[in-house]
Amino acid sequence: MTKIYNRGESSEVVAVRDASLRIDSGDLLAIRGPSGSGKTTLLSLIGLLTRPTRGKIFIDDQEISSYSDAWQTRVRREKVGFIFQQHNLLSQFSVWENVSLPLLYRDKGVGERRKTALLVLDRLGLGSRSDFKTAQLSVGEQQRVAIARALVTDPEILLADEPTASVDIETAAHILDIFKHLKGSGKTIIAVSHDPALVSEASAMVELRSGALVQSRRT
């Protein structure tokens, strides 16, 4: 698949160029490459946040990229969890309210949303922080809240953009343990990361340069 921004204009950018890859169920795929190489765009394409300019995207042997926007949104909500580099937490809401936000699209009542959010927060060691505002948390705790939010719908696929880049060594190790547990339970994890510890745990790795896949391996 290829993704071109500002197509036909003087500011045209080919963010991803003729990339072709297969990701198996249960993989932990690491995406590497220098800044501006197209890593985040590739992650956005896989997660159906943007459409390819050319090419096709399949999930479970279905060509999802040909679906309508509404249907792609439904697939994304049901199958994919996102951990964004900037966390994207809402400071005016509590920790559990942030985590439970994806459940709003599943017509869950407030009691059920809170119960589900608390279960995930307990798994990540944040149960005692559930009623805190996110601004009251450390950076590492905020990252774990972002992971909890991504997991609250029990998605099949987890996408992460530099999940350990802005946290301390202890928190990074904790996040890696979470990923290893999720991989062991059959979840598919796709992570943009330069963290050697995360890359070493990956079952597959691809490297991007100037939007093109230049290297791939499977362990």
Structure description:
The chain is globular, with a radius of gyration of 17 Å. It has a six-stranded mixed β-sheet, sandwiched between helices. A two-stranded antiparallel ribbon has the order 1-2. The protein starts with a strand and ends with a strand. By secondary structure, it is an alpha/beta fold. It contains seven helices and ten strands.
Protein traits:
alpha/beta, 219 residues, 6-stranded mixed sheet
Molecular shape? globular
Quickly count the helices.
7
- pLDDT < 50 runs, ≥5 residues: none
Structural class: alpha/beta
Topology:
Elements: E1 3-5, E2 13-16, E3 28-32, H1 39-46, E4 58-59, E5 62-63, H2 69-79, E6 80-83, H3 95-100, H4 110-123, H5 139-151, E7 157-161, H6 169-184, E8 188-192, H7 196-201, E9 204-209, E10 212-218
Parallel strand pairs: 3-8, 3-9, 6-7, 7-8
Antiparallel strand pairs: 1-2, 4-5, 9-10
Question: Outline of this structure?
Answer:
The chain has helices at 39-46, 69-79, 95-100, 110-123, 139-151, 169-184, 196-201; strands at 3-5, 13-16, 28-32, 58-59, 62-63, 80-83, 157-161, 188-192, 204-209, 212-218.
